[in-house]
């Protein structure tokens, strides 16, 4: 008989439960799904306490897995509704046991990338995002109605999201997310906090929405996709390549920009938004 995830501050207790539960359920983690499991309770408490501060009624969890975070959220943050999304049917037995204990949990077996666009009434998401689709999930969260996201991502992705213009990690994902959210780095999670141990460290991020996803943001995605294919070119040359004659007509309307110096990867998110509004939407 598999017990429920323990609410504990002991690494030893949590690690033993994870290993024993995987053995009892005869589950071997699948690399293609980036399946790793937290065996250190500290990140679980950090995520849960950050969530509790939001005082929200409904929460979506991406990648429920063994239901460890699900249980901590239900027991400590106590939202009225938790929608736990898990793609792997092998976790249904343990998730169903947790659901019987905590009546506010609904389980959905499916792909979060397909479910997020159709969600209504949920404004907060938590989860340890699978490494192989982290960027896709962040984009899906950005395009959704989600207002707050408290998520664990691989360290390199976290660095991209907090990168400054002109740095090596600055790219179109940075611009997209930072145009929509304030990004806070909550804590670094060492690779030893997971079993099986991944090859990289992770970081817990808190994303707080500052603007909705709208037509301007949709246009921003298209424009930056093209512009960042010329990442190190001067911005005005990249604009000419991406927008053609439209760029020539609108460059003078963009105000005090040093066109002979600024390159694509040195451009602030706000200037990209201004380019979209001036050169795409007002033509």
From TrEMBL:
Family as reported in the entry's similarity comment: Belongs to the class I-like SAM-binding methyltransferase superfamily. rRNA adenine N(6)-methyltransferase family.
InterPro entries: KsgA/Erm, rRNA_Ade_Mease_Trfase_CS, rRNA_Ade_methylase_Trfase_N, rRNA_adenine_dimethylase, SAM-dependent_MTases_sf
Lineage top rank: taxon: Archaea
GO molecular function, one term: RNA binding
Alphabetized UniProt keyword annotations: Methyltransferase, RNA-binding, rRNA processing, S-adenosyl-L-methionine, Transferase
Coiled coil, from the record: none
Location of the Ribosomal RNA adenine methylase transferase N-terminal domain: 46-211
Enzyme class, UniProt record, top EC level: transferase
Annotated residues for binding of S-adenosyl-L-methionine: 38, 63, 86, 111, 128
Protein name (Swiss-Prot/TrEMBL): Ribosomal RNA small subunit methyltransferase A
Entry-linked PANTHER family: DIMETHYLADENOSINE TRANSFERASE, DIMETHYLADENOSINE TRANSFERASE-RELATED
Species name: Ignisphaera aggregans
EC number: 2.1.1.182
SMART domains: rADc
């Amino acid at each position: 008989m598999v017990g429920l995830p323990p609410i504990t501050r002991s690494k030893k207790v949590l690690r033993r439960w994870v290993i024993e539960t995987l053995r009892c359920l005869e589950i071997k983690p699948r690399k293609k799904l980036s399946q790793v499991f937290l065996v250190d309770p500290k990140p679980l408490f950090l995520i849960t306490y950050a969530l509790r501060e939001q005082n929200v009624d409904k929460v979506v969890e991406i990648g429920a897995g063994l239901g460890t975070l699900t249980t901590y959220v239900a027991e400590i943050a106590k939202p009225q509704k938790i929608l736990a999304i898990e793609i792997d049917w092998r976790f249904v037995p343990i998730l169903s046991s947790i659901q019987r204990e905590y009546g506010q949990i609904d389980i959905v077996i499916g792909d979060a990338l397909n479910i997020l666009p159709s969600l209504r009434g949920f404004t907060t998401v938590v989860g340890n995002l699978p490494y192989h689709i982290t960027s896709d999930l962040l984009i899906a969260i950005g395009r959704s109605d989600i207002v707050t996201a408290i998520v664990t991502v691989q360290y390199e992705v976290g660095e991209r999201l907090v990168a400054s213009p002109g740095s090596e990690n600055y790219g179109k994902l940075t611009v997209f997310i930072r145009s929509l959210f304030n990004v806070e780095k909550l804590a670094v999670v060492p690779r030893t906090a997971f079993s099986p141990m991944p090859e990289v460290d992770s970081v817990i991020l808190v994303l707080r929405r500052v603007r909705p996803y709208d037509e301007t943001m949709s246009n921003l995605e298209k424009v930056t996709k093209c512009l960042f294919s010329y990442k190190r070119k001067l911005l005005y040359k990249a604009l000419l390549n991406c927008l053609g004659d439209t760029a020539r007509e609108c460059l003078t309307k963009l105000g005090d920009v040093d066109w002979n110096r600024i390159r694509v990867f040195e451009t602030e998110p706000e200037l990209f938004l201004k380019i979209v509004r001036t050169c795409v939407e007002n033509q």
